[in-house]
Structure to design on (166 residues):
């Protein structure tokens, strides 16, 4: 680590602390050349490998902007989008890999988005999974409905009433 004051190529760590959210470490350093102190923040880098092979750092802001488009006009709060992005990052980091394919990031978005708003989920899935026909939408909607229905079907209360006697 170069000293930001004199550009000396070495520094000594005086103190280390985990950040509040536990994803980075703050280190207090001192330059042996000029004696001045400075603080650094270190975090494990998570990279996303795009379909074309390009590699870029993971960005919560990018996740939020993509999901925000799918949620346009829906009753979804900005705080919900931030929580979703945090869940996605936690899921992707849990894989333990330093580089993650963009496909994996998209899959990590779909689950929390489905819980947040089904319409936004369909919008996002239609782009992410490249829906080509109405049949693609029908199949996805059928899956959503099947997951929503209880496993033990209850009788229809209207059909279960006895016929009216006169």
């Amino acid at each position: 680590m170069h000293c930001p004051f004199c550009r000396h190529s070495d520094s000594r760590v005086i103190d280390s602390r985990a950040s509040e959210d536990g994803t980075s470490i703050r280190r207090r350093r001192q330059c042996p050349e000029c004696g001045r102190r400075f603080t650094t923040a270190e975090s494990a880098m998570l990279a996303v490998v795009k379909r074309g092979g390009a590699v870029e750092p993971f960005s919560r802001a990018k996740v939020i902007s993509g999901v925000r488009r799918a949620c346009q006009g829906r009753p979804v709060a900005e705080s919900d989008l931030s929580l979703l992005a945090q869940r996605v990052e936690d899921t992707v980091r849990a894989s333990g890999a330093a580089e993650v394919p963009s496909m994996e990031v998209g899959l990590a978005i779909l689950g929390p988005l489905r819980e947040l708003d089904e319409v936004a989920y369909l919008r996002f899935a239609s782009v992410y999974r490249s829906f080509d026909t109405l049949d693609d939408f029908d199949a996805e909607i059928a899956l959503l409905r099947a997951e929503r229905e209880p496993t033990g079907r209850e009788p229809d209360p209207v059909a279960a009433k006895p016929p009216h006697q006169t």
Notes: Strands lie at 12-18, 24-30, 37-43, 47-49, 55-57, 99-101.
